[in-house]
Design brief:
NADP binding; 6-stranded mixed β-sheet; Rossmann fold; shikimate 3-dehydrogenase (NADP+) activity; amino-acid biosynthesis; Shikimate dehydrogenase (NADP(+)); 262 residues
Length: 262
């Protein structure tokens, strides 16, 4: 019997999840159908319930519903609890389970590039939900220091306060964007600057050896600046594929190879 999956969001037209999951299925021999669901902003919960009531197996969640999905779950994975956001749902024994695969997707994408995470120093620009979701998996992968730089310092400080116990074996630090300086193995842009077109100026005193832009498919002043410095840089397509592979694995117990889809 064909297994039913979906991605839910608003807007949803731009989602590439169906093509990814159908490609994974073709590669692994899983019989599935994966569709897009546009949920009204006030109708997320009823759309999720309707999908699972109609024998849906698993669902991905995208903007702006990840926090609502978190609140809806009966059971949460450790990384979902820390992220306070859920992008992967499934039913098990009559309970709704939730996970957050974004951080693991980022880790897999960085490892596929051959960039070393072990004992590395990472700077993350932005202190929103995207940053919250990736810190725990990065530290699990061996990162020893994470500096969070945000326009509003208090927000970065709050994130450090929230996460420091969960990643006790790494150093977490908050700074404002005005304090950007020092040397880092990898800089990750988790701000919406690439999406809004706001240029984020990286000062000369900031030295970095790799640059990862979480957004994909859009012009990025962050990537432009990294390339001007001749630093290896990439957009977030690998992270998108990586988080999808992780969800596919949770649901189907088979893991496609990331490198086959980059």
């Amino acid at each position: 019997m064909t297994k039913q999956f979906a991605v839910i969001g608003n807007p949803i037209e731009q989602s590439r999840s169906p093509e990814l999951h159908h490609a994974f299925a073709a590669k692994t021999g899983v019989d599935l159908n994966y569709k897009k669901i546009l949920a009204p902003l006030d109708g997320f919960e009823s759309a999720v319930k309707a999908f699972f009531n109609q024998n849906g197996v698993g669902m991905n969640v995208t903007v702006p519903f990840k926090e609502q999905a978190f609140a809806l779950c009966d059971q949460l994975t450790e990384r979902a609890k820390i992220a306070k956001a859920v992008n992967t749902l499934w039913m098990q024994d009559g309970k709704l389970y939730g996970d957050n695969t974004d951080g693991q997707g980022l880790v897999a994408a960085i490892q596929a590039l051959g960039w070393n995470l072990e004992n590395s120093r990472i700077l993350i620009l932005g202190a929103g939900g995207a940053t919250r979701g990736v810190i725990y998996p990065l530290v699990q992968a061996g990162v020893k220091q994470v500096v969070i730089a945000n326009r509003t310092l208090a927000r970065a400080e709050q994130l450090v306060e929230d996460l420091k116990d969960a990643v006790a074996n790494a150093v977490l630090q908050a700074i404002s964007l005005e304090q950007l300086t020092g040397e880092f193995d990898i800089v990750i842009n988790a701000t919406s600057a690439s999406l809004t077109g706001d240029a984020l100026q990286l000062p000369e005193s900031l030295v970095f050896h790799h640059a990862y832009e979480m957004a994909y498919g859009k012009p990025s002043s962050f990537l432009d600046q990294a390339q001007a410095r001749q630093v290896p840089a990439t957009d977030g397509f690998g992270m998108l594929v990586g988080q999808a592979i992780e969800a596919f694995y949770i649901w189907n117990k088979v893991k496609p190879e990331l490198k086959d889809f980059l």
